[in-house]
C-alpha cells in the first residue's frame, strides 16, 4: 500500500450547470483509475440495515451516493479503519482491492458503483476471518 493511488480516497468530479437548470456530472474511463467493466446501483435499503461485509481480491470501485447519504467504513488488511460519508452526487469514493467494507444507507439513498471487473463470485472475500488472515500471508 505504498502507492497513494492505491489508497481509498474521495474523488470530486466536475459538475456542469446551475440551480436553474440542474447539474450534470460525467465519469469517463480516460479520467478514472481503472477501466469500467460493470455499473450497478443499490436502492431502497432500510436505514436499519448494514450492507457490505466483504472485500474484493482484485476488483476496484468508485462509489457514488447519487441520492441521499451513504456511510462507508473501510478496513485494510492491517486493521486500519477509515469512515467516509458520501452525500454529494459528484463525489465518488475510490476503493482499491483488499478493503473490507460495511455500508450504511439513509432511507432515500441510491448507491451507484463503477467497477473494474464484471461480476465473478470467486472474486469476493466474504469471510472476515479469511480477510484478516491476509496480513499474516503478506498479501498486498
Give short descriptive properties of this protein.
140 residues, mainly beta, Jelly Rolls, five-stranded antiparallel sheet, 1 helix
How would you describe this structure to a colleague?
Helices cover 4% and strands 45% of the residues. The strands form 3 sheets. A 5-stranded antiparallel β-sheet has the order 1-9-6-11-4, with no helix packed on it. A 5-stranded antiparallel β-sheet has the order 8-7-10-5-12. A two-stranded antiparallel sheet has the order 2-3. The longest helix is centred in the C-terminal third of the chain and has 6 residues, at 128-133. It has 1 helix and 12 strands. The chain has one domain (4-133): Sandwich (Jelly Rolls), CATH 2.60.120.10. By secondary structure, the chain is mainly beta. The mean pLDDT is 93. The chain has one helix spanning 128-133; strands at residues 9-12, 15-18, 22-25, 38-43, 50-56, 61-67, 70-75, 81-86, 91-95, 100-105, 110-115, 124-125.
In the CATH hierarchy, what is the architecture at level 2?
Sandwich
- DSSP summary: helix tally: 1
Amino- and carboxy-terminal Cα gap: 7 Å
Strand arrangement across the biggest beta sheet: 1-9-6-11-4
Sheet/helix structural class: mainly beta
Mean pLDDT: 93
H/E element string?
EEEEEEEEEEEEH
From the alpha carbons, calculate the radius of gyration and give it in angstroms.
Answer: 15 Å
Percent of residues in beta strands:
over 45%
- The CATH class, by name, is Mainly Beta
Helix content: under 10%
The largest pleated sheet is described as: 5 strands, antiparallel
Total beta strand runs:
12
- In the CATH hierarchy, the third-tier topology is known as Jelly Rolls
Shape verdict: globular
CATH homologous superfamily descriptor: Jelly Rolls
Residue windows where pLDDT falls under 50 for at least 5 positions: none
The total number of structural domains is 1
Protein name: dTDP-4-dehydrorhamnose 3,5-epimerase-like enzyme
Organism: Hymenobacter luteus
InterPro entries: QdtA_cupin_dom (IPR008894), RmlC-like_jellyroll (IPR014710), RmlC_Cupin_sf (IPR011051)
Pfam family, one: FdtA
